[in-house]
Amino acid sequence: MQLKGLVRFFTILLIIYSLYQLSFTWFVRNHEKKMEARARNYVKQNFPSATEKYPGSKELQAVYQDTLEKAYQDKLRVLLDSTKDVTLTYGINGAMSYQKAKEEELNLGLDLQGGMNVTLEVEMTGLLRSLANNSTDPNFLQSLLNAEKRKANSDADFITLFIQEYRKLEPNKPLASLFANTSSDEVDIKSSDSKIESYIRSQAASAFDITFDRLRSRIDQFGVAQPSINPIRDRGLIDVELPGVKDKERVRKLLQNTANLEFWDVYTHLDQNYVSGITRAFEVYNAKYGGVKDTTAKADTTVKPDSTNATVSNDTSKKSGGIGDLIADNNDTSDKQQVQPTATSGNTIDKYINFQKAIPSSLGTVNLRDTTKVRQILNELRPYFPTDLRWAFGTVEKDKKGLLLNEVQLYPLRTYGRSTPKLDGDAISDAKQDFDQYGKVEVQMTMKPAGAAIWKNMTTAAAGDPSTPNDNKPIAIVLDNLVQTAPNVINPIDGGISSISGGYTQQEAADLASVLKIGKLPAP
Questions:
Q1: C-alpha span between 445 and 428 (Å, rounded)
Q2: Per-residue b/e over 296-326, b at no fewer than 16 CB within 10 Å?
Q3: Taking the model in full, what pTM does it have?
Q4: E-assigned strands of 40-143?
Q5: What are phi and psi of 523, to 5 degrees?
Q6: In degrees, to the nearest 5, what angle opens at C-alpha 179 toward C-alphas 174 and 183?
Q7: Distance between alpha carbon 74 and the CA centroid of its chain, in Å?
Q8: pLDDT tens-digit profile of 456-473?
């Protein structure tokens, strides 16, 4: 009898504990549904519907619907971020905020919560074409086609299948005849087939890792709770589970897009129309929202060095100050340009943008939770900025110990009215982590001939006048609309081989090289 009593007691405890854990899920779901309704209502009140905006055009309606969905997601993210500290319920340890309850809720999985499961394949045909410098050899192309046909019914990996098919068509021709033409110094025309195969496999592994990292980064941008991303390396597959996803077609499209690597010029303190534009814009914002009374504060317009700044050159580096110096430093009493008024109350722009942490290529840093708010502010102030200015956030910052911080840099890209960059990832033939003549870590980037000519023009313009100190400018390297780095250009670069330095660790340099390599990989 005593044993039965204990069983009942622990059964009751288990039921109570289960209900307690489930309660977090209920409170979280209830709160999120309320925020979703508010976000939908916001979009409905502030934007016309797709049929109202473009009556009679299904194609434009579909495009505009993506805009409405983005506005909804942005508003929902703001609402959830702004209510993360709101108390939803009370637990054993007291009040439970939305954020804490979200951490405690049960993972319902796809079966209970819904969502989507996608299996993506890292496409190897394009990689082999790239490694073979886009060879038009008929037997090479036929071998790729034959390997593709066999892949579905074979347990062998694609590289094995390709080599087998190529051997059938070219039993005596060495693989080096195809792959030794690459810009890599790892193989040459005398390399054995086994060495060529090892080289191809190492490049394939790198392509897989790059693709996996980019997918993980893209999924993080969706804000999906508890995603599952599992690599299946031996088959070149990546299995993705995204619980709770509603717009499956949009997510599938974003996941399958080829990585987009671009090079853009950057506005700096040297561009007076940019400086005057943001100065006026932030004065207007502070006056409207900050309760400004004193507008006599002055800013230090002297150029300051920044030890964190990366450079791109053929040799040594020099530093230049940034626009953040013009806005953030209000302690100089000398008669200099008025930049930012001093607010006595309310929310001034520096609540959202930390100008003190600006680097020469950026305006300042933004906390991750404020990125949507900052986009809204910049959009509101758009009339004051140069017409060809496009704002872009950087990747998540790291501290000196390599730990991730909760902030990103904000970069002012200069488009010159173009929707596409002068130079993109297709121009890159190779990139690798290397060391300079002093043993310091750097990234060596090699351009194809056509890209090298454009790169020379871009770096010549960015390098400025050698006789004028601090006249050089940065060029931003952008992947999937996130600035990976924006090194200062020290001198014009002719020949297509560039060295990017900036106090990188070996791992950071290897990661940047991987980012640059994405430009020549058509995966996934």
A1: 7
A2: eebbbbebeebeebbbbbeeebebbbbbbbb
A3: 0.60
A4: 87-91, 94-97, 115-121
A5: -95, 150
A6: 145
A7: 17
A8: 999 999 988 877 777 889
